[in-house]
Design a protein that fits this description.
- The chain contains 6 helices and 6 strands.
- It is of the alpha+beta class.
- It has one domain.
- The strands form 2 sheets. The chain has a 4-stranded antiparallel sheet. It has a two-stranded antiparallel sheet with strand order 2-3.
- Helix 2 runs antiparallel to helix 5, helix 3 runs antiparallel to helix 4 and helix 4 packs across helix 6.
- The chain is elongated, with a radius of gyration of 20 Å.
Length: 193
């Protein structure tokens, strides 16, 4: 058996992520909105017609939310790279790219690392751009920050899905990004099966 044969592929086809996205959309909405409504209530009760002040605030907030999201996408990928650097991955092994047809940007690492480190690389952006703002928004009653957190958590659906799929492997397994597909390859330790 060659070295390549020992590596197990753990990949997610883009089509499958799109299909699973509905689940992530609903789950994140429930996890964020239920406590927000319970703690702070609904900010704009749908009594129509809304006052012009509300419409202006919604338009301004929506534009700022969109801007924050656009700025945060490369930050998300940068946090993956930071996680790689934190796990002592050489900078020369880290590359950035985009798949325009799929509408995704990505960071790729050609170096091998322990699965515990790979899990950190996967989850770091979700923690810093999703969960941290969610806690902040929930604590302060700010629906715009919670909406931003929601967008960032849902945008990380591929990372969360990959994190979930790797749960069955031991932390000391070697991992490397898949060279062509969305996902990775895992090499179990000698004693593993």
């Amino acid at each position: 058996m060659s070295d390549h044969d020992a590596w197990q592929e753990v990949t997610i086809p883009i089509r499958e992520i799109v299909l699973r996205l509905g689940w992530w959309l609903v789950m994140a909405a429930v996890v964020l909105c239920v406590p927000m409504v319970w703690l702070w209530g609904v900010p704009y009760w749908p009594a129509w017609p809304w006052p012009a002040v509300w419409l202006g605030e919604i338009a301004r907030g929506g534009a700022l939310l969109l801007l924050a999201y656009v700025v945060s996408v490369p930050i998300h990928e940068g946090l993956h790279a930071l996680g790689m650097l934190m796990t002592r991955t050489p900078r020369s092994e880290i590359t950035f790219g985009a798949r325009i047809l799929h509408g995704v940007v990505y960071v790729h690492c050609s170096a091998e690392m322990k699965l515990t480190s790979y899990r950190l690389v996967l989850i770091l952006p979700v923690l810093l751009t999703g969960l941290l703002p969610a806690v902040w928004g929930l604590a302060g009653g700010n629906w715009w920050i919670v909406a931003y957190a929601y967008l960032m958590i849902v945008s990380a659906a591929g990372d969360l899905e990959m994190y979930w799929r790797l749960r069955r492997f031991p932390g000391d397994a070697l991992t490397r990004d898949h060279p062509d597909l969305l996902g990775c390859e895992v090499l179990l330790p000698e004693s593993g099966s």
